Amino acid sequence: MEGRKKYIGLSDSEVKASRQKHGANILTPPKKEPLWKLFLKKFEDPIIRILLIAAFLSLGISIIHNEYIETIGIFCAILLATGVSFWFEMDANKKFDVLNQVNDEDQIMVMRNGNVKQVAKKDIVVGDIVLLEIGNEVPADGELLEAVSMQIDESCLTGELSIDKTTDPEHFEEGVTYPSNWVLRGTKVINGHGVFEVHRIGDNTEFGKVAVKATEKVEGETPLNRQLDSLAKFIGVVGLILALFTFLVLVLKDVVFDPIVPMQKRQLALLAGAMLGVAVGMIKVWLPIIYGGLELLGKDSKLPKSVKEGGWLRWLLTGVLVTVAISSIGYVFGVDPLNSSSWINLDTATEILQAFMVAVTLVVVAVPEGLPMSVTLSLALSMRRMLKMNNLVRKMHAVETMGATTVICTDKTGTLTQNQMQVASTNFYGLEDQRLTDSEISRLVIGNISVNSTAFLDFSDPKKVAALGNPTEGALLLWLNNSKILYSNIRNKEAIIEQLPFSTERKFMATFVDSPKLRKKVLYVKGAPEVVLSKCKHVITTEGLVPVNEYKEKINSQLLQYQNQAMRTLGFAYQYVDDAKAAVEDLIKGELVFLGIAGISDPVRSDVPEAVQHCLSAGVGVKIVTGDTYGTAKEIGRQIGIWKDDEDTDLNIIGGVDFEKLSDEEALNRVQGLKIMCRARPTDKQRLVHLLKQKGEIVAVTGDGTNDAPALNYADVGLSMGSGTSVAKEASDITLLDDSFSSIATAVMWGRSLYKNIQRFMLFQLTINVAALLIVFLGSVFGQQLPLTVTQMLWVNLIMDTFAAGALASLPPDPNVMKTKPRKNSDFIVTPSIAKHILFTGVMFVILLLGMMYYFSGPVHLNSFFSYVAEGDRERYFLSYFFTVFVLLQFWNMFNAKAYATGKSAFAGLNKSAGFELVALIILVGQILIVTFGGDVFRTMPLTIQDWGIIIGGTSVVLWIGELVRLIRKK
Ligand code: ATP
């Protein structure tokens, strides 16, 4: 293999020119569906469809009566409801789009102006010289200039999981889809490293052409959604039964037993036929609800395909056919369907339609349409806000699962520590005073650090030279640099024959080079000291070669000293080799010469101990899983506050190898007590996660390396590091952009707050549902007038709910959620205490409202209480009053919902919830406008200012009682 060339890369002006000519390295996102199409999709909702059918039927009657008011009201309500939920959904989608933009910001190492630096993926231009490392995703298409043991995962383009890449024409593979010296955008480096020149970018890349996935996939369904789905099914069935019952009662009451015009048998027969036809025509609405109910009862029955996939039109036609068929049968028995005397009278038809509308509305009221939207909105809002806190959420479910997390298995480097590695101390036994000179041993040390490495130094800012790539190796290069030794001079001269890159499993790295300076072929090895030492026969000291055994004790005691200061330790070795063709792996047979050790310090991040404390007090366990040694890991554990010398014993710490030796049963008994796993390999990490999950824990795991992917995938929430490999990022659910543990603690807080917000919305919405359902049901069965009209219920249910969903979903996270223990993931979101709360409040509202209805049902109280209203208007005035009381009871209940589970007053932090205030205002102003100007559409008339005062003040008791309860509970 040839030696390394010195690359200069493009200059700034060349980059500019190239960008002007070829554009930026971004993929054109797939064309989005036009807005009107997305809006029309809202009408696919069966509930909205049936409302539309009802609205059109009502339009028919309106034309005959020449009275359009109520029909217009229904159409407006439908448009407004679809409009509002469409707007919220658009907003949520916009928030998800952020994900793709962040993807374009991935940092890529390039050579520019003769210097290695990092630029965003989107800023790569044609002609750039890009450096690739293991775990990187290739940012553009291009030709390899250099490739060391390079293997690429091309599965996203060709399905090939591992392809060897080389620049040596002799080794070019034939019959492969893409040439052996080409790398392609979107593919990943799974082994080795290399350098390539960019030829094609953005849409011109193979990846861009096939446009396999121009956007990050965001899966829709979350565990919470599934829970809500069964809740919706339950409510659907209850609503349907109540609706059916109400319809029957109303029809029997108004049409059969107490009709305006008495009905004849043939009219009834034809009516029954027509109704059956309507029932068949609407099968797509009610049958799924019934099947949903059966599913809840544990019956595994599948909705017939004809209903699931059959078009609406087809079923409507079938309904017409059924009516025709029944009428024909009627004809045989002497009922002539074409004779108008067999038809029911128009007023009766209007009454039936009215009963139908009430039934439809009951279903509409029962189904909590706001729920799924509230979840989507909460997730979208959390995702965007979490991004500001350095958490990039890749998979939606992660936000809520984070809230249920009981254990966090965290990496050490970067997550707990600052990832600013520095060589704190060295002990090269052949160096006098650890000084690097021109001696042979110095050259071996310098060569080992410079060439047996994949890191680079960025000299863009000469005052602050920065390390790029592997941080451990970067620290060593910086150490050389401090001694005024430029690593690249050495690296460019020594020709690499073969290289074994560092891996966490192997825990060492080896490079076989031809050194012109030493005039010999040398094998450099560096890695975990005990691993390197086990491959050595001698130690080179200032006195010459000494057998390892004689020196081991001294080395170990020095290592222990480093580790007790939380330092990462490294060992170095070399061997002169004569056999030019020998493979590295064959060379490492225990004949190496040990050069010495280095201690690398990496201070704990200052915010970590507090964040760890937050997690611990929130009942979330923290476990360190590190590749470092027992001593180093324990010291870090001590510094962050999870390791207590007086409490913890050897049962709380284990090494990867020992862990592997434990049987599953033994390991299961130990995993929950473990606090630290040292010298861990990815397989140990994966097993730990597996066993913890078996113990019923909800596990969040951090990982940055390619081989962490299985553990990340397997965990309930996988957290990758912003600086980690793209493979790890892809396998993860959340990326911590700042790599820091405190972001994990924030994510737990967000997850819990989100869950609470959804519970709050449930509390609010389900109380309305219970109250409205019972009132309309009881009112229509026992009363004369409908207590709430269809349009009124639509306002309450479709619009107010949607707004409230927005308000409660956008409440800011509450740090207090970290004071309680984690919830069980299996817990149902409507906890028994919430259910009790809903039923109690709902029933109280119903008693109050029905009591009011009863009290004013006769003229006595109506006349005396509303004496200031013109006599003929009193009933309408009372109904407006009643409607407003209903809405305002819910309005104040929204404040109680906001305060739910905070232990604080509903007014606490109100100034921080602008969204909530706005929605409260919209609902109040909306109600005033509706009552004042709603007229016939809403069956309202303007109330006096005094009455507004009485209603607002009177209903606010709901809030004051809530405040009182909260106050008592606090004490
Ligand atoms: P952490 O929890 O700190 O992220 P890790 O699991 O990433 O640790 P590894 O990278 O596997 O740990 O490192 C394990 C050991 O391997 C280190 O203690 C060190 O001795 C050695 N080591 C680390 N990086 C390199 C490297 N680039 N070359 C050679 N040896 C290394």
TrEMBL record:
SUPFAM superfamilies: Calcium ATPase, transduction domain A, Calcium ATPase, transmembrane domain M, HAD-like, Metal cation-transporting ATPase, ATP-binding domain N. Its EC number is 7.2.2.10. It is found in: Endomembrane system. GO terms for cellular component: endomembrane system; plasma membrane. It holds the Pfam family Hydrolase_3. Gene3D superfamilies: Calcium-transporting ATPase, cytoplasmic domain N (3.40.1110.10), Calcium-transporting ATPase, cytoplasmic transduction domain A (2.70.150.10), Calcium-transporting ATPase, transmembrane domain (1.20.1110.10), HAD superfamily/HAD-like (3.40.50.1000). It comes from the Bacteria. InterPro entries: ATPase_P-typ_cation-transptr_C (IPR006068), ATPase_P-typ_cation-transptr_N (IPR004014), ATPase_P-typ_cyto_dom_N (IPR023299), ATPase_P-typ_P_site (IPR018303), ATPase_P-typ_TM_dom_sf (IPR023298), ATPase_P-typ_transduc_dom_A_sf (IPR008250), ATPase_P-type_domA (IPR059000), HAD-like_sf (IPR036412). It is a multi-pass membrane protein. It is an enzyme of class 7 (translocase). Its main location: membrane. This is P-type Ca(2+) transporter.
